[in-house]
Amino acid sequence: MSGRKLLSKNLAAALAVIILLLPCQQAQAQSKTQNNKAQNSSDSDSKKVLIAQVRKLCLQHDYDKALNLLEQAQTESRYRDDYDLLFLYAKLLSHQGRYQKAIDYLERCVQLRPKLAEPRGSMAYYYFCMGKFDQAEKEASVGLTLQGSARGFAYLRALIGKIELYKSQGPVNSPDYLFAEERELQHFDRKDFPIRIAILVDPAFKEYSLQFKKAVLNSFEQWRQASGGFLRYQLVSQKEARIVCKLLKYRRERGFGSILGETMRDDDEGLEDNLKFAKVEVFFSTDQDPREIEATTLHEVGHALGLNHSNNPRDIMFPTAREPFTALLTARDKNSIRKLYGIPPGAQFQ
Question: How far apart are CA 73 and CA 54, in angstroms?
Answer without folding.
Answer: 11
